[in-house]
Amino acid sequence: MTHMRGHLLLTIVSLAALSTAANADTLPIKGSYGNKDGCAYAKSGESTNFFLLTSEGITTAASYCEIKKVLKTEGKDFTATVTCQAESEESSNDDTVKITSGPKGYTIGFVADAAIKWGPLPLCK
Question: Whole-angstrom Cα distance, residue 98 to residue 117?
Fold first, then answer.
């Protein structure tokens, strides 16, 4: 009987861990997407002028935007809230991004400033 309870407890703990992971606010994408320098940065951590999109955030040569909450998913297009911090600055700001999939990769647009468009960012090889 004790052996059976152990399996039941393990099953419950495993299911709880899976449901917690499923509720994590990351984009449901596989791999990294970036310009040539962004993909080099994904591999080596070094580059100068780059844009990189991962399931956790958007990294550029001058800033990092962490995905806080995925608000909407339509196929391969996403709307998410992000918290961005510029390099060498302690303060951060929140924004909403629209990440759209196209034939050449993902394009990222910021709701607060329609002039900011990054991409298309193809899948890194």
Answer: 10
The Cα–Cα gap between 63 and 11 comes to: 41
Q: Quick one: tokens of 16?
A: 């709880």
Residue type, 98: K
Cα–Cα dist 88/22, whole Å: 33
Q: What are the tens digits of pLDDT across the range 15-39?
A: 333 333 444 489 999 999 999 999 9
Please, what is the Cα angle at 82 between 81 and 85, to 5 degrees? Answer: 160
pTM: 0.76
Using alpha carbons, list the distances in angstroms from residue 94 to 34, 62, 74, 83, 112: 22, 16, 22, 4, 10
The whole-angstrom separation of Cα 42 and Cα 34 is 9
Residue-wise pLDDT for 43-62, tens only, equals: 988 888 899 999 999 999 99
